[in-house]
Amino acid sequence: MRALGRAAIVCFVLAGCSYVLPASWRSFRAEPDDAAPAITRALDSIGASVESFDQAHHRITSHWTQNGGGNLRTRERYIINWERDPKEQSLTIYVRHETQEQEVGEGGGIKWGATYHDDKREDAMLDRIAKELAAR
Questions:
Q1: Which domains are present in the chain?
Q2: What is the pTM of this model?
């Protein structure tokens, strides 16, 4: 019974920490100035628009895009960061895909639920960014 309790706690902690798990990342032979245009073109290729561009912190966040209808609605967005490693002479790009499902609250109101990520979508976005960087 004690082992089952520990397993449940571990599962709970892992589920609760899914938001803090690291983003998918990939290193490229590219200049930091090439990152933002490649990222915005990659987002545009899937119909996502930029909500914010924090140039000082090398971060682009897309607008939330809503999907579905009826009872099941979700929304998703991308948070993309990049940094230059002068020692390796590479550019590392981090992609975080976030999804939320719409839930009915206790009082009957609608709210957005927990945030989770999809590593397959992160990898697909990194592929799109790689294609854009190669096209420069």
A1: 23-134 (3.30.530.50)
A2: 0.80
